[in-house]
Amino acid sequence: MTVPSRSLEPVALGGASEQTLVPPPAQETLGTGREFTPRALATGCLIGAVLTVSNLYMGLKTGLWESGSIMSAVLGFSGLAALGRRWGGAPGPLETNLSQSTSSATGAVPAAAGLLGTVPALALMGVTVPAWSLVAWGASLGLLGVMASHLLRRRLLVDEALPFPTGAATAEVITAMHREGAMRQPGRAKALMGAGLCSMALTWARDALKWVPDVTAFPGRLAGLPAATFTWGFGWMPLALGVGILAGLPMGLSMLLGAVLAFGVLAPPLVSSGVVAESGGYEALSIWLVWPGVGLMVGGALVSLASQARSLFRVVKDLRALGSGDVRSLRWLLVAALGACGVVLALGVGVFGLSLLQALVMLALVVPLCAVCARGAGQVDVAPVGSMGQAAQIASGTFFPGPSAVNVAAGGVVAGAVAHTGVGLWSLKAGHLLGAAPQRQLLAQLLGVLVGSVVAVPAYLLLVQTHGLASKALAAPSAQPIRVVAELFTRGGSGLPPYALLAAGIGFGLGVVLALAARGRLERFLPSPVAMGIGFILPAFVAVTIALGGLLAAVARRVRPQWTEQYLPAVGAGTITGESLMGLAIAALTWFGVLGH
Question: CA 479, CA 119: separation in Å to the nearest integer?
Fold first, then answer.
């Protein structure tokens, strides 16, 4: 799946975006000015490092992450304009586009490396992966995803001219910024930075100074117990408010509905009947509730995958087209791809325990499934990364039965490469409309992948060592469906919590029904099964706060529509980035002993 810039998508699952296709930039802006400059690369890497931390922190907390193309363009323009006062003059559109290409490629690394799904799922199974191998794994799979996007570029962007709405919107924003100069667009950057500073201050007051509680519990009782027993309350989480602002009210209400069913309807009788111990808290409840939640998500994701069936028939033509155009002038690309495949094979067999044949089959699936994902990104602005990863898990479990951890790693091969394909093609679409050189964008994206791998892995290890996984602080909701699918292939129904398999089946059926019904006129009235499933896994106070953010955004759009369109996305992104950066800083200070746990 991943992620349109102006809406968020469930990591490794698949979601929906509603983007308005914008007209292409004016012809006078195309293909002019400097492009591949040191300051563009440096700005892109710096913004990308921030986006990497933000996506990592947000993904582990909420199961969502952001491509960041549009906000990277806004911040890149502002940064390059500031540098231009002393170094090299004002930036051009191509320079800004190269900066956003670098930063969006950098920010996608947490998903490509499996740090939001595959690696936490393995950790929950008791499998520890060395840090050096995670860096190499993420870099290699990211490189494969970037290369796949370039192999498919001519077919999808030039020959078929698919819309890729996020990429078109990014090109339009870049054109508008350079047309209007410094008169208007820095306001977005100021809104982002102001929201970020406020978010950082609140996070410091909450986690370091302990002046603000984590949660303000709701009054009342459920099954004779305080509502706080079932995690009901308001979370003082600027990140969750920002997620709600960007995701919108429908997504927030879908999560809240899932939380109501999970922690309001199912959890109280589970505790009162003794199926779940009262003293176990959220961690004990989540062990049972994850099953119906994952059922909902998998049911919705499989319907989404089935909707991509038409793309499967076009993949053959896409693959036949790979031998023409750009590829012939970039033979080194294929050499680099073979090198990345060699690294994935070595790590897959030597570290993750895949058989050689199994690893080869998973690599063989990468390009076809990347092509399916690319068509989703191009046609409807949704890249179903999670569905592709789950399809690979099913294939691996069917033809290569074995330990659960091996099944998880097998799916991670495909999901990791696919994560970068949609993001890469959104950037390439923007560059295509602006007249950018695809070879230069390729080099910028490859640099971004390498930088992101170096930044993401230490940040992940620091957060996990400080907060732990499957906790209130880091629920890691994207890891749960990956783990559940692997365990079902390995264990069947044995060893599961009481009634969990039945609950998963009911959730699966409900997810299928909702996803099918949403394909008609009822779409705007029905909840998202994927978002509902996440509501089963997150603490209820997180869903409440996300829904509140969506409500605030909806009210703002009605009261101040012009201001909202211009600044609200920046405010949402700023609150997410601020808490992410401060959360990582607090984790580092805690790890070094400056702050207590």
Answer: 8
CB distance 135 to 454 below 8 Å: yes
Length reported for the chain? 597
Ordered alpha helix ranges (H), 38-158: 38-62, 69-84, 93-107, 109-112, 118-124, 131-153
Given pLDDT bands bounded at 50, 70 and 90, which one contains residue 33? low
pLDDT for the residue numbered 75: 87
Q: Could you give the CA distance from residue 363 to residue 359 in angstroms, rounded to a whole number?
A: 6
Residue 19 has pLDDT above 60, yes or no: no
Q: Are 548 and 239 in contact (CB under 8 A)?
A: no
User: pLDDT value at position 131?
Assistant: 93
From CA 480, how far away is CA 396, in angstroms rounded?
18
CA dist., res. 222 & res. 270, Å (int): 12
CA atoms within 13 A on the CB side of 326: 23
User: What letter does residue 228 receive in the DSSP assignment?
Assistant: G
Q: Over pLDDT 70: what percentage of the chain?
A: 87
Nearest to 238 by CA among 54, 491, 459, 484: 54
Res 451 pLDDT > 80:
yes
Q: How far apart are CA 484 and CA 301, in angstroms?
A: 14
| pTM (two decimals) | 0.84
- Measuring CA to CA, which residue among 151, 171, 150 is closest to residue 424? 150
Can you give the pLDDT at residue 263? Answer: 95
pLDDT in tens, 520-544: 777 788 898 888 998 998 899 999 9
Note the pLDDT of residue 308: 59
Bridge-partner residues for 64, per DSSP? 10
User: Exposure pattern of 300-338 as b/e (b: 16+ CB <10 Å)?
Assistant: bbbbbbebbeebeeebeebeebbeebbbeebeebeebbe
Cβ neighbour number for residue 266 with a 10 Å cutoff: 20
Cα gap 101→424, rounded to integer Å: 8
- What string of DSSP letters covers 570-585? HHHHHHHHHHHHHHHH
Alpha helices in 400-499 (DSSP H): 404-434, 438-467, 479-491
Task: Please tell me the distance from the alpha carbon of residue 126 to that of residue 475, in angstroms, as a whole number.
Answer: 16
Among 161-165, 338-342, 408-412, 551-555, the least confident range:
161-165
Residues 412 and 382 sit within 8 Å (Cβ to Cβ): no
The per-residue pLDDT for range 290-330, each reduced to its tens digit, is 889 888 988 887 777 676 555 555 555 555 555 554 545 56
CA 39 to CA 41: how far, in whole Å? 5
The CA-based angle 396-56-450, given to 5 degrees, is 80
